[in-house]
Amino acid sequence: MLRFITRRLLELIPVLFIIATITFFMTRLAPGGPFDKEKNTTPEIRKAIEAYYGLDKPLFEQYLSVIKGYLKGDLGPDYKYPNRSVQELILGAFPVSLELGCLALAIALAIGLTAGMLAAIRQNSLLDYSAMSLAMIGICLPTFVMGPLLALVFGIHWHWFNVSGWDFARDRVLPAMTLGFYYAAYIARLTRGGMLEILSQDFIRTARAKGASTAQILFKHALRGGIAPVISFLGPAAAGIITGSFVVETIFDVPGLGRFFITSAFNRDYTLVLGTVLFYATLIVLFNLAVDIAQVWLNPKLKLE
Amino acid sequence: MLFHGNGAEPQDVDPQIVTGVPEDHIITALFEGLVSEDPHDLHPVPGVAERWDVSSDARIYTFHLRQNAQWSNGARVTARDFVRSYQRMLMPSLAAEYAYMLYVATNAEAFNKGQITDFSKVGFKALDESTLQVELSSPASYFLSLLNHYSWFPVPVSVIERCGPINQRGNRWTRPENFVGNGPFVLAHWRINDVLVVKKSPTYWDAGQVRLREIRFYPIESFEGQERAFRAGQLHVTYEAPLSKIDSYKQQHPELIHIDPYLGTYIYRLNVTKPPLNDKRVRRALAMALDRVAIATKVRRAGEVPAYCFTPPNTAGYTCTARLPVDVEAARKLLAEAGYPDGRGFPRLTLMYNTVESHRTIAEAVQQMWKQNLNIDIELENQEWKVYIDNQRTLNYQIGRFAWIADYVDPKSFIEMFITGGGNNQTGWSNKEYDLLLAEADRAPTNEMRYELYQKAETLLLEEAPIIPVYHYTHPYLLSPSVVGWYPTLIDHHPYKYVWLNPQPEIGNH
Q1: Helix or strand holding residue B127 (H, E)
Q2: What pLDDT, on the 0 to 100 scale, is given for residue A305?
Q3: Residue-level pLDDT at A211
């Protein structure tokens, strides 16, 4: 087990290195730079800014100094917000995204697992059809429709919640619901599928024949295998959720990490692009590792190696 | 407490580093220059300087600073503070993007470009604690208006020194815990992408005038999001109203929607270095075949003014008399003279714009008008913002949209753009006579004489037509009726020391 984890963590190093290299050169190849603005300054001043950030040096030299910085734990200054460093931006915004993501994930799991299991037990019943139709709508309704809709109803019409900001505990509700509903829909469908497959297997029939109750069958025998597809889905999805959603954060004005992913690319904010990409990549690798471990725990037929 | 929707997250609040409008709003609350702005029409009124004298040749300004002007740490704002601020602004290593705003002062440009290193040769002198002398390289009669641009605001250099090297970017003096300013408000709290809070400064010399206790600037980027927050009672004022909502507000809540004139012009740049746009007859034909009334009233609909010249009418008393009229007959004739009768043989030009819905609708209208009026086909191409800017800068385009918003209330802010080699010219157009007229205008001792030269210059610009003016901007936004002292101004400045809230229950859930 420990060997497995160590090996996987060591594998992370070349993966991150390759991602860093590709990201670095891709951002530099994109036309335009961080200091291109609608109002152009004089060429001399422009040169001075580029010199300040070392952007006038040969590309490979810049690359080496970026890698050196990372090895020393220095992610560099941000170009868009000159008095902030990249690690400061990421570490400042991540807790917000993490909080929002965990709430959304809780909502998604609570709704998704329940709906999926109910639908699986009562396959082809009215309950199944309505739960799955709702899930279909949830998947099809993008967050940029769901978000303003919830804001309109609960914020503007009923005045229950603020429609933007992140100041009070109640400000978490609408963004978490918007993000949570979307994933709940996926999880419901995956759960239903996984459960149906398990429920049709021989050992379940045996359990039934021996007189086990529905609850026993569901929670003791079927659940472990039935949610395997959900677990595989959750690895990368959780990494995505807790690093923030650009759309939800923009709609509700949440100061999370998701906005930096998108805006840094638009701004050609090279250092922040690299920082967020590597941060995200690390999380994905770690979550996939966690998923692999969970899968083995859920299914003894699998082995770590 | 004023809740202010402020567009994008401010890059910084160091007046010598930033360049944007959201930053501008915050900085005018935090700092005050030598002069200040009248809340109604923004004409210069005494600020840190209580009075000033101008030499007879209009080249030397002597400012007498008030004794009671203070920084928020209690220190006096002295003439030396201004000199040191300007020195920092012009240090080549700081690479302040707006350093060129100071180039009117003697030798400021040379110092900024590193041609001289002795700052005592630059035209800023502290004669004593409270007397500042500024020597201009030529009598610039717009100088006092220019002083209201934040690049001229003082910064607390001794405080900046304590937080790091003054001549480098990334100094942390603008963090709330380090911040020192001299404006009506001080920085109290700043959380990125969330809120920036400024509180009334007790040390401000005119604190008696300031009635707001606090302003909260919310960086809500989407106009729709701001509109929702406004409707939910979370904002008193939005940065801008979404175009799609303007009509319904006009009908249902005309008391909430405000459409102020705005000192900016939407234009198409024409790349004059490549045929057929190197022929001014073609350029004029394109301009004259464009029905700008239809674009302003049918495509835009936020009260924009059709533009027949570049500088918006009545900019600091200047209204261009020349016109680039709409005249389809004459346009056809010009095109025929240029060798394309009825559009025959006209090469397929490409009109470029950055990927924004509103630019696309205008471009489509333009495409149709040229087809209808001149029988020529053009292609539309949208590009991602940075790609677009890059292509404009390197003249890798034929026709491109552009918007120019003035930095200060003076026609110079517009006309100067098309000087040969100007950073924002980007059309390849260069005209010796135009450059000479502008240079002469800089030396003109009075505004009347200067404006006369601008008239000539702008006439020439329209005659040559390296650009097609489309419309003059307006600024549509939502404003709560409880906000008092907020007047329509040309560059969206609303000096906060005159703003207050009608005593009525505070809005929102805060």
Answers
A1: strand B124-128
A2: 57
A3: 87
Q: How many CB pairs under 8 A join A and B?
A: 153
B26-50: average pLDDT: 95
Kindly tell me if the per-residue pLDDT of B504 is higher than 70: no
Task: List all residues 6 or more positions away from A145 whose beta carbon is below 8 Å from its beta carbon.
Answer: none
State which H helix or E strand residue B389 sits in: helix B385-393
Q: A259 pLDDT exceeds 60?
A: yes
Q: How confident is the model at residue B339 (pLDDT cuts 50, 70, 90)?
A: very high
Q: What is the CA radius of gyration of chain A?
A: 24
Of B12, B233, B234, the CB nearest to A82: B12
With b meaning 16 or more CB within 10 Å and e meaning fewer, what string describes A74-86? ebbbbbbbbbbbb
Interchain contact, B92 vs A268, CB within 8 Å: no
Q: What is the pLDDT of residues B468-488, one digit of tens each?
A: 999 999 999 999 999 999 999
pLDDT reading at B509 higher than 80: no
Nearest to B231 by CA among A178, A143, A158: A158
d(CA B46, CA B436): 34
CB atoms within 10 A of CB A166: 21
**From CA B16, how far away is CA B68, in angstroms rounded?**
24
Q: Does B391 touch chain A (CB under 8 A)?
A: yes
Q: Are A277 and A221 in contact (CB under 8 A)?
A: no
How near does any CA of chain A get to the CA of B225, in Å? 6
